[in-house]
Amino acid sequence: VQLVESGGGLVQAGGSLRLSCAASGTIFRLNAMGWFRQAPGKQRELVARISSGGSTNYADSVKGRFTISRDNAKNTVYLQMNSLKPEDTAIYYCNMLFPDLPVGSWGQGTQVTVAS
């Protein structure tokens, strides 16, 4: 399984970004998918999850601001991030989940930096 994240960048606080994760080498539509992030000096954390059926869950820290979605025809999962805060600064990764633990190989991630 190969996962390739993109869409990160530098944005001002209050701004928005849309991350994409393209998956190959798996039957994408059968997998729950998640977006993780890792800030400097902190552990990697799960911030959003989407089931194979489209049900979503979010960490409290991003609830109401982030939206995870998937396009099974494109083997891609997205993370729409609105009202970004400096504390959202991190490297963002996607991965397959079973049921809530990452089970695939990590990609290179995409850097999100939110300036105050």
Short description:
By secondary structure, the protein is mainly β. It is built from no helices and 10 strands. A hairpin with a 5-residue loop joins β5 and β6 (56-58).
Secondary structure layout plus pairing:
Layout: E1 2-6, E2 9-12, E3 17-24, E4 32-38, E5 45-50, E6 56-58, E7 66-71, E8 76-81, E9 90-97, E10 110-115
Parallel strand pairs: 2-10
Antiparallel strand pairs: 1-3, 3-8, 4-5, 4-9, 5-6, 7-8, 9-10
Separation, N- and C-terminal Cα atoms = 37 Å
Number of DSSP strand runs = 10
Q: Helix and strand succession? A: EEEEEEEEEE
Shape: globular
Indicate the mean pLDDT: 95
Placed side by side, the strands forming the largest sheet appear as: 2-10-9-4-5-6
| pLDDT < 50 stretches | none
Radius of gyration: 13 Å
Percentage beta strand: over 45%
Number of helices: 0
Written overview of the protein:
The protein is mainly beta and 116 residues long. The protein is 0% helix and 51% strand. It has strands at 2-6, 9-12, 17-24, 32-38, 45-50, 56-58, 66-71, 76-81, 90-97, 110-115. A six-stranded mixed β-sheet has the order 2-10-9-4-5-6, with no helix packed on it. The protein has a four-stranded antiparallel β-sheet with strand order 1-3-8-7, with no helix packed on it. Strand 7 and strand 8 (76-81) form a beta hairpin.
Key words describing this protein structure:
single chain; 116 residues; 6-stranded mixed β-sheet; 4-stranded antiparallel β-sheet; 10 strands
